[in-house]
Amino acid sequence: MFRESKNKVEMVMNTGNLETSHRLNGAQRLRECCFIVGFLAAILLAVALYSFNPADPSWSQTAWGGEVKNAGGRIGAWTADSLFFTFGLLAYSLPAVLAALTWVFFRKRSKNEPLDFMLWGTRLLGLVVLILTSSGLAALNFDDIWYFSSGGVVGDVLTSLALPYLNLLGSIIVFLFLWGAGFTLLTGISWLSIVEWIGNISITATAWFLNKVRGSEKETLEPARESFTAEHTEPEQISSDMTLSDQSEIMQEEPEEQQPQPSDDETEHYQELEEKTHRYNIHMPDAVDDLEQREEALESEQPEPSLRSQQLHTTIEELEKSALEQGDMPDQVESETAKDVQPEESVYNPLADIDLETEKQPVISAEALDHVIDDADMQTGRIEPVISDIESVDIDEPELDAPEVTEPERKDPDVAAFQNIVSEAQKNMAGAQNPFLAKKEEDLPVPTAPMPTLELLYHPDKRENHIDRDALEDIARLVESKLADYKIKARVVDIFPGPVITRFELDLAPGVKVSRISSLSMDLARSLSAMAVRVVEVIPGKPYVGLELPNMSRQTVYFSDVVGSKQFLDAKSPTTVVMGQDIAGEAVIADIAKMPHVLVAGTTGSGKSVGVNVMILSMLYKAKPEDLRFIMIDPKMLELSVYEGIPHLLSEVVTDMKDASNALRWCVGEMERRYKLMSALGVRNVKGFNEKLKMAADAGHPIHDPLWQPGDSMDQEPPLLEKLPYIVVVVDEFADLMMVVGKKVEELIARLAQKARAAGIHLILATQRPSVDVITGLIKANIPTRVAFTVSTKTDSRTILDQGGAESLLGMGDMLYLPPGSSHTVRVHGAFASDDDVHAVVNDWKARGKPQYIDEITNGDQSPDTLLPGEQMEGDDDIDPLFDQVVEFVVESRRASVSGVQRRFKVGYNRASRIVEQMEMQGIVTPQGHNGNREVLAPKPVTE
Ligand SMILES: Nc1ncnc2c1ncn2[C@@H]1O[C@H](COP(=O)(O)OP(=O)(O)OP(=O)(O)O)[C@@H](O)[C@H]1O
Q1: Domain ranges of the chain
Q2: Which of 619, 645, 687, 877 is the 20 to 30 A CA-CA neighbour of 583?
Q3: Binding site membership of 602 for ligand 1 (Cβ less than 6 Å)
Q4: Which residues contact 555 (CB under 8 A, 6 or more apart)?
Q5: pLDDT: is 27 or 606 the higher one?
Q6: ipTM beyond 0.95?
Q7: Do the annotations mark residue 777 as ligand-binding?
């Protein structure tokens, strides 16, 4: 009508809405009026109370006709008088109370903010209690105002009720506490939080005040045990050199965490949580990272699953569908038949089919097959002569590209009989040549690789090297607390997990002696429930002490792992040997030529023989026979005889102790010869000698033997000098040698150990008896490199290493290696080479060549010509004083056993065996036979 446009209409409507929204509805209007009146009353009340004049007319005063002084007029005077009369001093607070009540009840509220009557009921109750108790307290404690009691009538009534029963103090206390309860009812503020808040304020104020008083001088906190823990838990937040104010600043920075004071349980929970998040410095071995990287690489390298393997995961329906689409679905009849014969098979497997068929052949009759075909025909409605009889099934089978299936039923009886005869003959042959019996190797095919390959060795499957950080941290905490039990303040700073043990590096508090921890190693092992704990007193380059604890699950360090390591592959020397892995899993290798001799000791079963085998095998991986030769002495006849026949051997493996001393004597002679040769060529060692020889040969002037004299051989001119190989002498049970041959061996070994280094002759001596009569001072002084496997006592450890520690090893190849020229032992987990590994490498070398034994090494009879400088003929030894008596006894008893002589004459083994050998030399008894017995050659004395 009069509104012209639609827009305008909307605008007018909107404006109308807005206008109505600003108007109050009926109830609201009433409430707002009450709100205004309430405030008016509060203001008037305040005016009346604060301008109260006792001379004004009121309930209590009669002042007729006088001028009213009260600013609230006559009403104000009467009201004020009434309130002062009723509430006393408390009347002054009533305007504020009235204003507050007005605000609470009449202010405009939103719909989502309804009045909580329960809450307001308690508040009202609180207010009443507060007013009553305040009046009571005022009546008891304050003077009257004007002519009113300070507590008003209310206070007077309350006190008159309380005083006869509670007396003054009791009444005050009761009113005070009720007042407190009323306050909490009214405000909802807990008195506990008020107390804590006051405490906080006072501490902060005191700290602030103290710092103010001390001026710029800042207080430094002592790193006490508590702060020590704090440092651990929040190192980046609270450090020991922070001032108190700094710390309070930090506290203020996190008010949410500091202000709501937690309960005791919560505090404990937080402490636990803090301790859980306490991270130690764990050094993961590189191997773990490598492993992870390799795993990732392997995963990324994994080829896409082939179509065939994809098909394995599809259902038969999907396969059929796709086959139909591609048009290579087999004949319906065939598939149906197959279904009947093999209802379970969902994926086609030719091998499974063959097995099934061959198994089923005898039980499927032609009738049954016909029945199957009938069924199929009925289902398909097609008649096709697919299977005619059983034979046709058999003949069709080879099409399936299956392995040969033996079918004894169809064999000719003559052929079967012939085969029986042949197999019987083969069995007899096999019985004669039992493969489990050690036998001479036939000519093996020569390997194509120039040196043995790593494929010969056992390669373990990929091993999980899972390191549980939380478990390690738990152990670290346990270590700290156990040490604290023994009053040792120490803190774990670094953790090095390894394949066999984990090293915890401890930072000791100032003044704690390392020896205290060392002496506690047994107690620590017990309290940590560990097999053994080794204390590393000095870690080179670090101010810490090491505590080595065995891992829960131990990993075997395989020879193939270490021999395939970069360090070993990079090493050039032919005498490089593998030791094992250090505590962090890094390969430890050494060079025998630099050692130059090594002593290996440990109790039986500690892994010595495996260790020695590993050393020999690693040299077989590095050196050709022209570079390195071995002389092996093995009194046990077990450990080293496996090497018999490798081209590196200079002589057969020596198992007779007499031959062993000959071999050692030969070595001394060879050493002397080499020295003469080297001095003739003016070189200082074997390496220099070989280089000079090569240089001369390359230059076309090969060097002839300068020591040759006419008559030494049938040749007319001196022979050409040949390359000198390193010679490594391995003695597996050195104690045996010392026991049987005695002093002579000690002398020979000492001579070799002193001088053989430059001549390229090196010794590996292993013993399971690390006692001072075996490892004598003379030998020890000349053999600087030692390897200690587990020993039973600390004394044994000292005998080998000149320090303790080997008694705390874990066995199974766990060793302490004392490198040459060092007094610090290195803990090494020895590499493990199985018998199969040894055989594989040995066979590989046997296939490459035959050894050329030097007979004089073992058979070299002692004659005045072959005597070494300074050596005496054995026969020149003084005849034993007991000799004549022993001869008499032996000739009479006709028994020439060493033990018999020992028993009869009460002498030691060495002396008895020497006397028997002297008798042998004089032809009184025969040499030892195969059974160890000797026969008496001298005739029995004739008795009259
Ligand atoms: N490095 C190693 N890792 C794992 N197991 C090892 C290792 N070395 C040795 N062993 C285990 O310890 C056993 C004993 O080792 P070995 O025969 O070398 O001891 P031994 O000290 O030579 O004893 P004995 O003196 O009696 O010959 C081995 O059969 C093997 O099972």
Answers
A1: 28-108+115-196, 469-550, 559-681+724-857, 878-943
A2: 619
A3: yes
A4: 463, 465, 499, 500
A5: 606
A6: yes
A7: no
